[in-house]
Design a protein that fits this description.
The chain is mainly beta and 112 residues long. The chain has no helices and 11 strands.
């Protein structure tokens, strides 16, 4: 089993920035697609961004141009740089590792 430990969530004003990080406990990380999902109150969990083992990225239309996903295979980590944050970005953000691995979730709250 793989543990995914997230950090970087918090409260920020609209227009501000946050950086989320996720560290995996196992080197299997480097062979697998990884990324971030989020779930807002009353809504279904949705894909935010993915990055393959080779560095190919996919973003939700709602975050393109504002969020950047990256990975460091030597450190078994994936990060999400979030700029120009909007109140609609408020959600619990979950780290994902291909297969069925999920982090515990970290709260991001953007105030207007």
């Amino acid at each position: 089993q793989v543990q995914l430990v997230e950090s970087g969530g918090g409260l920020v004003q609209a227009g501000g920035s946050l950086r989320l990080s996720c560290a995996a406990s196992d080197s299997i990380f480097r062979f697998t697609v990884t990324g971030w999902y989020r779930q807002a109150p009353g809504k279904q969990r949705e894909l935010v961004a993915l990055i393959t083992s080779g560095g190919r990225t996919t973003y939700a239309d709602s975050v393109k141009g504002r969020f950047t996903i990256s990975r460091d295979n030597a450190k078994n980590t994936v990060s999400l740089q979030m700029n120009s944050l909007k109140p609609e970005d408020t959600a619990v953000y979950y780290c994902y590792l291909g297969g069925s691995w999920w982090g515990q979730g970290t709260q991001v709250t953007v105030s207007s």
